[in-house]
Amino acid sequence: MTVGPGLERRLGTADAVLIGLGSMLGAGVFAAWAPAARSAGTWLLAGLALAAGVAYCNATSSAQLAARYPTSGGSYVYGRERLGDWWGFLAGWGFVVGKTASCAAMALTFAAYAVPPAWQRPAAVAAVLVLTAVNYCGITRTAGLTRVLMTVVLLALAVVVAAGLGGGAADAERLTAWDAPPHGWYGVLQSGGLLFFAFAGYARIATMGEEVRDPRRTIPRAIPLALGLAVVVYAVVGITALLVLGPQRLAGATAPLASVAGAGDGGWAEPVVRIGAAAASLGALLALVAGIGRTTLAMARTGDLPAALAAVHPRFRVPHRAELLLGAAVCALVLTVDVRGAIGFSSFGVLLYYVVANAAALTQPPEDRRWSRALQVAGGAGCCLLVGTLPWASVVAGAAVFAVGVVYRAARLRLAGAPGRR
Question: How many Cβ atoms sit within 10 Å of the Cβ of residue 315?
């Protein structure tokens, strides 16, 4: 239930799909192929299928819940409503803290593609400030800029595919020679885990459910559609990368799609890849800022975060204090640390987020159900399976982040004299 001033329903199906697609076609589509190939070789396509299957199960849960609870907050709200306050808090805490680090990582990734090393931190801060300002000016501005960025990204990916396949370096034998995975079936599962997180952005649609027109109809259509489009794009790009480079060269590539575009006589396309990767990083950052702001708003409405963050701008109808605080926090991270290689706990948090979503959807009564319970069971099991593929350091970091959250909420409840609902 929405408490306090609400946001305004301005997004249609096309806008919601674009925001979800912008979250999924981030920097990962330009970088995820090398580690996936190191883990699974040609079998990374099996990992991609696994990731897509788990993502679809999770997407149906999110869509079904968002249709019933069309408010800001995503799994934070669903967990509270269906499972209890603590489950909702854990999902929201993991999302806000983990994705704040992801924002800094995306800003630094953009700068790495866009400017020389000496200018990267200032450029990353500038990107955060500009995108925070865009989000501040209303959700329609966010959707409009996402449309522009996604056009650039899709054009860049089309150039990669055309240059790779037309450059004379593609060889069908590289795709048909299915040798044993270099690290066995564990490597295939690990590649699925690496690629799964590229698909997790469809949750942004559910997180902004309070701003979608006709949510009971729009959200269940937008989430699977955005996911389906992303899977098609990833499949085309992944197959092209294997055809052009093969699993061994792909595994060793520092910039996989630049290597694909530059193979054969396609060297002219490499600058386009750099532009596309920069735009993809900005698109993911834009969607992250919007999603974290809405989850922070939901947590502030219930007292799990300071109540001042529940303010909604009277004109632009956005959680402006939450977004300004987020922008300041991300700028501080960008200026002080390099989190691009140290955000494994974000992956841990995403998986817990979807475990909560699947468990919440599993409890919904028949009149609220749109998909079989078997999909929710499969989604939850798939998330637990993928947790086992994470590096141990990521699991430890994730557990530590959640331990801090548990201590914070327990202390807050104790000071307030409230034991929590359940």
Answer: 8
Q: Buried b / exposed e across 26-44, counting CB within 10 Å, b at 16+?
A: bbbbbbbbbbbbbbbbbbb
Least confident of 174-183, 221-230, 241-250, 328-337: 174-183
Which of 110-119, 339-348, 408-417 shows the lowest per-residue confidence on average (mean pLDDT)?
339-348
194-204: pLDDT as tens digits:
898 788 788 88
- Give the angle subtended at the CA of 399 by the CAs of 380 and 102, to the nearest 5°: 80
d(CA 23, CA 96): 15
Instruction: Give me the mean pLDDT over the 145-169 stretch.
Output: 93
Q: Which residue has the tokens 């997790």?
A: 200
Q: What is the pLDDT of residues 330-346, one digit of tens each?
A: 999 999 988 766 566 78
| CA nearest to 325, candidates 340, 337, 338, 308 | 308
| 253-285 tens-digit pLDDT | 888 998 998 887 767 788 898 899 999 999 999
Which of 29, 34, 30, 27 is closest to 253 using CA atoms?
34
Q: Which has the closest alpha carbon to 382: 230, 223, 196?
A: 196
Q: Are 351 and 387 in contact (CB under 8 A)?
A: yes
CB neighbours (10 Å) of residue 283? 31
Give DSSP secondary structure letters for 16-67: HHHHHHHHHSSTHHHHTHHHHHHHHGGGHHHHHHHHHHHHHHHHHHHHHHHH
CA quadruple 6, 217, 370, 195: dihedral sign: negative
Residue whose entry in the numeric block shows the structure tokens 């970088």: 31
Identity of the amino acid at 12: G
CA distances from 395 to 86, 322, 342, 386, 402 (A): 20, 28, 12, 11, 11
**DSSP annotation of 388:** T
Close Cβ partners of 352 (under 8 Å, ≥ 6 residues apart): 90, 91, 94, 383, 398, 402
The Cβ-side half-sphere exposure at 328, using a 13 Å CA radius, reads 6
Q: Which of 107, 112, 92 has the alpha carbon at shortest distance from 332?
A: 107
Is 219 in contact with 212 (CB distance < 8 Å)?
Answer: yes
Nearest CA-CA partner of 212 in 226, 200, 197: 226
Q: What is the Cα–Cα distance from 182 to 395, expressed in whole angstroms?
A: 24
| Chain centroid, CA 51 distance in Å | 13
